[in-house]
Amino acid sequence: MAEPVEDGQNSNPNRNLMRIGVFKIVKIRTIKDFPENQHEEIRNGGKIILPESVLHKLNGGIVIPSPFILKIVSGKRHVMCGVISFSGQNGHASVPEWVMKQLHVTANTCVTLYVLLKSLAKGERVLVQPLSTKFLDITDPKAVLERSLRNFACLTKNDTLNISYNNLIHPVLISDTKPDHTINIIDCDLVVDFIGMSVIL
After folding, report:
1. Helix intervals (H) in 84-127
2. What sign results for the dihedral spanned by CA atoms 83, 88, 92, 97?
3. Regarding the domain delimited by 4-116, which CATH topology (the fold level of the hierarchy) does it fall under?
4. Ramachandran angles phi, psi of 96, nearest 5°
5. Torsion angle in degrees (nearest 10) through CA of 180, 185, 190, 191
6. CATH number among 3.40.720.10, 3.30.390.50, 3.10.330.10, 2.40.30.10, domain 121-200
7. 135 near 172, Cβ under 8 Å?
8. Number of Cβ within a 10 Å radius of residue 53
9. What is the mean pLDDT of residues 157-168?
10. 79-88 pLDDT per residue, tens
11. Percent of the chain whose predicted confidence (pLDDT) is above 70
12. Is the separation of the CB atoms in 160 and 130 below 8 Å?
C-alpha cells in the first residue's frame, strides 16, 4: 500500500499527498481506448494515462477524493493533473506535451507521482493570457476555450497550456486562479478573464 508523505513544497509534514511511485514519462501518442476524433484534445488536455498497476497500489482503505488529482514531480518542478485512463504501459506515465515542457523533461525521464488526498477548492475565477495573438483572432475564443477546459480536472497558476484548434496549437498562460493556487474546475461556475475581455463558462 502507498503511504502519505511530506509535500516537498514546505518543510512541514503534509498528509494530503500519497506517493504512488516513480514512472518514466512519455508523450501521449496513440490513444486506442478513445475515438479518433478525441485524440487531439486528449493530447493537449489536463489528464494523463497510467498503468492499471496504479489502482492496485491505491488499495488499502485510504479515501481518495473525486476528482482524482495527481502531482507529478521532477526536481523542484511539479504539475497537477487528472487521470483519463488506467490502460497505459507498466512503469510509464503518458502525458500531454505541455506537461513535459512544464516539467522541463524529455521522454523516458523518471518522475515521481503523488495522489492528492484532500479535495481542491472549487474554481471561481481564472485569468488566462494567450501567448499567441492568433488565439484572439478565433471567431469564438470563448467556445474554443470552454471545450478545451472540459479536458482538464484542475488548473494551476503559472502553468502554460496548449489549446488545440483547427490543427493549430495556441499556448495560453494561466496567470491567476481563485480562490487557490490550484483549483478544481469540474462542475463549477468558473469565470474566465482573458487579457482585455471577460467571459463566464
Report:
1. 97-103
2. negative
3. Barwin-like endoglucanases (2.40.40)
4. -65, 155
5. 60
6. 3.10.330.10
7. yes
8. 13
9. 90
10. 999 998 888 8
11. 83
12. no
